[in-house]
Each structure stands twice: as structure tokens, then as C-alpha cells.
Amino acid sequence: MVKDDPTKFSRLPSSEQILGISFFQGTLQQACCRAREGGLTVAPSGPGMANDLVACDEYSHSLQQADLRLLDSGFVSLWSRIFFKKNLFRISGLTFLKEYLAKTNWKSETSIWVMPNKKQGHANIEWLKSEFDYKVPLDCFYIAPQYSRTGKIIDKELLGLIKKKKPDNIFIQLGGGVQERLGLHIKKSCSPALSILCTGAALAFFSGQQAKIPSWADKFFLGWLFRCMDQPKIFVPRYLKAFRLGYLLFKYGRKLPVN
Fold first, then answer.
1. Rounded mean pLDDT of the chain?
2. How far is 175 from 199, CA to CA, in rounded Å?
3. Global pTM value
4. In this structure, what are the phi and psi dihedrals at residue 63, rounded to the nearest 5 degrees?
């Protein structure tokens, strides 16, 4: 495996605990450097934490076992600012992936791309080709099966591909609640030098498979609005359920929610 030699960090620059999860509080550049050292990177969404943090023990365990946890949720960031009197530095999965890809050495690094379906997957790899002049090898393109909604995830076929290709990175472009559990499965079974990146369906935003979110909208925590306007039947109910996150924050604050 070949990577650029980023600045090494013996530990994260700083972190802040919310709902029992210690979120990274360094800069975007530091986050990218840390992720390139290897391990599991997650960017849990507000709706994901609202529903899965209590309902799915394996999801909660995945977040706690991650090596880098990015604060993607604008709701949590605003909550902390108002009730904890603490301004937390938010790095969305979208912003992180954009920066990580921009700093990727496409000639020397190898990657495996885990996609939810063929349509979205092919659109994503076409975007990578047009944006970076990088053609994803067919044997590094993996369509994920239908994983279970709860519990542990085991994918022997994917593990076999990883052990055969020995990639530097694995980009998991699946929905929240699933990708974190898959990421932990990979982390437990593969080299610690492998960078496992769980950034939701961030590539789909770039490739046009999901709503285009301008940088200013992401900065001001309005990505949810663009998604709701683009696909209201899917995302309006999802974000309405996310209001439960407010209840969890009221009740538990910095502590891990329990069943």
C-alpha cells in the first residue's frame, strides 16, 4: 500500500463528547491527515443518531470504536452552542470527502468503492472520471448486498476483495446506520493501515444522484432543506423523526443514551 506521508498525530488534537460520542474538534486538514493514517472514519448524521443510537447497540458500538468521528450534525452543533455554551467545530461528511478526494494521490493510492446500487455507483464513478481524470477499475467497484437493518454486519465477499486488492482506502457510500456497522466489520478484519471512510452518500451529491447542496448551504446547516425539497416523500419523514435527537440531548447531554 502506498500513500503520501501526512503529518502524524499521536492523538486527536481535541475532542468533545456528545451523547457518549467523542467528536473530533481539529481542522479539516487535520481530519484528512488523521484519516489517511488508517482506521475507521465516521460522520454520523443527526437522523442516524436520533434513531439508531438507542435502537441499535451495534451502531452505537461502531461509533465508539471508530478512530475518527466527525461532527456532521448541524443540529448537535447548534444545540451545543445554545445549551452547552460551547461552539463546536462542524465538519460535514460532504466537506470532508471533498477535501479528502482533492488531496488523494490518484496515481499511487488504490481504493475500493462500495456503492448502494449500479445506477448510483456508475454515476459516481463517472463523476470521479470527469473531476479527477480517474477511472475506477471494475474489480475495485463493489455493489453492496442488502444488509440487515440491525445487529452485526458480515460480508465475506467484500473482505475477500479487500484482502486481494490491499487498497489504501475504502470509500463506503451507503446510508447511515449501515455503513458504520460495515466499517467496524472491516476494521476488525483488515490492516490498521486501511483508511475506511464512511461519509454517507456524499459522492451522490457530487454526481447529481441526490440533491445538489451548495457549499454555503452546507456551511449554514441547510443541507437537510435541499434534500427535503428534492425528495420530500423520503426525507421529510426522516428529518421529522430526527427531532427525537433533541429529546436525547435534553435527557442525556454528554452521556451515552441507554435502552
1. 86
2. 9
3. 0.85
4. -65, -40
